[in-house]
Structure formats: structure tokens, C-alpha cells
Design brief:
alpha+beta; OB fold (Dihydrolipoamide Acetyltransferase, E2P); Trna Endonuclease, Chain: A, domain 1; 2 domains; six-stranded antiparallel beta sheet; six-stranded mixed beta sheet; about 45% strand
Length: about 240
């Protein structure tokens, strides 16, 4: 996925009210940008961090600039827009990078399914064969381990249960962790942040839900998923 226009650089002053961030642009202006991330953004919203914004081109929006990247560590760019994750994973499937999810004739997005009234991020279909793919955006890395979630997520545990239910019905199901940064070497559940999610992930994996993780190459010009990471769930 390439950015259609050059990003706008600045320094993060603060992130607040979940969806807002104050930024001092390189030209000296101080503006408020939309923050397209509902998580805690642990490790990615330190004041003073170098950030890059996208101009949505929509002058009618109250905050036409949207936060896209942050330099979380020296020379480590992180894509913070959770809305990018589904598109990145779909691109990885269609390009053949996500080799585990090949062989399906069609891909649909945001399809309703399950007993808990969820929407599946990607539904891969070929004849009567179905693969339900739930996508999670990952921005937190500690050491060399990407960690999910970065905040307690009851919704995330619900999605795992729905995937396990699809497996029981004879379908294929996968949780896909989209790591929007290039410094991770593995993916682990963030047990100290949300032990319930970690426990549920282990349970559904044992029940047949596949766990996939890919990390992205993130630059000022593009974000592309390239490398599969092992999913490690210690006892």
C-alpha cells in the first residue's frame, strides 16, 4: 500500500481523548490531528516523538489531517492507523505474500456471521469452502516481541470465540496479526495487559483456529506486509 501523497512531518505534543493529537508541524504551526486508533498506543504516543500525518483532502472535516506514522524507536517507523490493517492483509492475500491463505476464488469484507452478531474482517470463499479471517492491528513491541493487545479488549475475546465456533461448524478460521512495524521477530499475547485475551487465544488455537502474524516494511512512502512471524504462546 503506497501513500498517494507525501506525508506531513511534525512533532507529537500530546495524544488525548483517544481520537485527537496535537502536533507541531515542521513549518511551526500547531494543529490538532485525528488519531485513527482506539487502543492505548502504548509505546507509540510519547510526547516529542517524530510523527507523520496524512492530508485527507476533505476540507469539510473538523480535523482534515490524520496521524499515520510515528517513530517509536530510533529509525523504527510504526503505522498507527488501525483502519489500514484489513487492506494490508487483503493485499498480502491477493499478492500471494500470505501463502497460507491462498486457493480461494473470492474475498469479501465485513460480512456478518456468528451467534454474537460480529462482522468478519475477511471471508475467503471457494465453492463451499470458507475461511473466516479476523484481523488485528499490532503496534506494541517489547524487546523483539510484538504484543497484542495493548489494552484490555473484551471485543477481541468475543471475536476469538466466534472464530472457534466457525471451526466447530466445519469451516476454516484464522486470527491474523498485522504488525505495522519492522522490528518484531515474533508475536506473543500480551498476558500482563489482558490475561483473559491471552487465555482465550490459547484455547481457540487448541480448538483449531489458526494464528498468523506478518510484519510490515514501513517507510514514508508505503506500508507492505512481507515477513511471517512465529506466534509464541508460552505455558
Amino acid at each position: 500500500m503506497r501513500f498517494p501523497h507525501p506525508l506531513i512531518a511534525g512533532i507529537l505534543l500530546r495524544r488525548y481523548q483517544r481520537f485527537l493529537a496535537d502536533v507541531r508541524l515542521d513549518d511551526g504551526r500547531e494543529i490538532t490531528a485525528h488519531t485513527p486508533n482506539t487502543g492505548s498506543m502504548l509505546g507509540c504516543c510519547r510526547p516529542g516523538s517524530r510523527v507523520w500525518l496524512r492530508d485527507t483532502g476533505n476540507a469539510a472535516r473538523k480535523y482534515p489531517l490524520s496521524w499515520e506514522l510515528v517513530e517509536a524507536e530510533p529509525e523504527v517507523l510504526v503505522g498507527i492507523d488501525t483502519g489500514r490493517a484489513n487492506a494490508l492483509v487483503r493485499e498480502a492475500v491477493e499478492s500471494g505474500v500470505a501463502s497460507e491463505l491462498q486457493g480461494y476464488a473470492s474475498i469479501r469484507q465485513e460480512v456478518r456471521y456468528g451467534e454474537e452478531n460480529s462482522r468478519i474482517d475477511l471471508l475467503l470463499e471457494d465453492g463451499g469452502c470458507r475461511c473466516y479471517v479476523e484481523v488485528k492491528n499490532v503496534t506494541l513491541v517489547e524487546g523483539r516481541a510484538a504484543l497484542f493487545p495493548d489494552a484490555v479488549t473484551q471485543r477481541g475475546a468475543k471475536h476469538l470465540r466466534e472464530l472457534a465456533a466457525m471451526v466447530r461448524q466445519g469451516h476454516r478460521a484464522a486470527i491474523f496479526f498485522c504488525v505495522q512495524r519492522g522490528d518484531a521477530r515474533e508475536l506473543r499475547p500480551a498476558d500482563r495487559i489482558d490475561p483473559v485475551y491471552g487465555r482465550t487465544l490459547r484455547e481457540v488455537m487448541a480448538a483449531g483456529v489458526e494464528a498468523l502474524a506478518y510484519r510490515a516494511d514501513v517507510t514514508l512512502e508505503s506500508i507492505v506486509l512481507r515477513i511471517r512471524l512465529p506466534v509464541v504462546c508460552p505455558d
